[in-house]
Amino acid sequence: MKRLWLLRHGQTPANVEGRFAGRTAEPLTAEGRSQAIEAGKRLAAEPLECIYASPLKRTMETAELVVRGMGRQVDIVPHEAFIEINIPPWEGKKKAEIRKDPALLYEVWAKTPHLFSLPGCETLAQVQERALKAALDLLERHDCFLVVTHMVVVRVLLCHFLGRDLSAYRSIPVPNATPILVVAEKDGFRVEAPFELSQAA
């Protein structure tokens, strides 16, 4: 059986402030760094062959701290397919600020994110397509590996692995720096998480 671990980056100032970091160079907070090291300790017994990470600062920093927490060397490879969703008009803005401009479609994102579509921006379906292709390709190459990425990417991947439509996007919790296991079995995928995964479709 193949094992894919998914990990959202550790806490960032944007997470605390309710700000959309997007593809900016957002660092981790002190708490986020501790979370990443702790995630590494939880993964220490896993035979990880490689860590693939979104190339953004917060995900690369998380991956490096995971390795520190594991206490052994594992190669970290930046992978563009796992980068944050691209919504340039939102970058660096607080959610309350985005909500003030109806043209930015935050209400659509909040209530029906699978229907969100803004010119020059990615949709959830596009993120899922690029991330899933990469994840499946890597499952062909590795028996056990980790992907360090973003909440949006983890959620759209889990929608697929749980057999849910993207309309179920908001039913899937993705805490910072909490390892989630996806096991590829003969008849599909099994997801194991240290928290309740709602059965809502």
Q: What does this entry show, briefly?
A:
The protein is of the alpha/beta class and 201 residues long.
Describe the protein.
- The protein is of the alpha/beta class and 201 residues long.
- The chain has one domain (8-147, 160-192): Rossmann fold, CATH 3.40.50.
- The protein contains seven helices and six strands, in the order E-H-H-E-H-E-H-H-H-E-H-E-E.
- Strands 3-2-4-1-5-6 form a six-stranded mixed β-sheet, sandwiched between helices.
- Strand 5 and strand 6 (188-192) form a beta hairpin.
- Helix 2 (30-43) packs across helix 3 and helix 6 (124-141) crosses helix 7.
- It is globular and about 50 Å long.
Fold blueprint:
Elements: E1 2-8, H1 13-17, H2 30-43, E2 51-53, H3 57-70, E3 76-78, H4 95-99, H5 106-111, H6 124-141, E4 144-149, H7 151-161, E5 180-185, E6 188-192
Parallel strand pairs: 1-4, 2-3, 2-4
Antiparallel strand pairs: 1-5, 5-6
Helix pairs in contact: 2-3, 6-7
Note the main attributes of this structure.
201 residues; alpha/beta; Rossmann fold; six-stranded mixed β-sheet; 7 helices; 15% strand
Mean pLDDT: 96
H/E topology pattern: EHHEHEHHHEHEE
DSSP strand content: 5-15%
CATH architectural arrangement:
3-Layer(aba) Sandwich
Largest sheet: 6 strands, mixed
- Which secondary-structure class do the elements indicate? alpha/beta
Principal-axes shape call = globular
Low-confidence stretches: none
Question: Major sheet: order of its strands?
Answer: 3-2-4-1-5-6
Count of DSSP strands: 6
List the total number of helices: 7
The CATH class label is: Alpha Beta
Please identify which CATH superfamily we are dealing with. Phosphoglycerate mutase-like
Rg (C-alpha, Å): 16 Å
The CATH topology assignment is Rossmann fold
Helix content: 25-40%
Distance between the termini: 26 Å
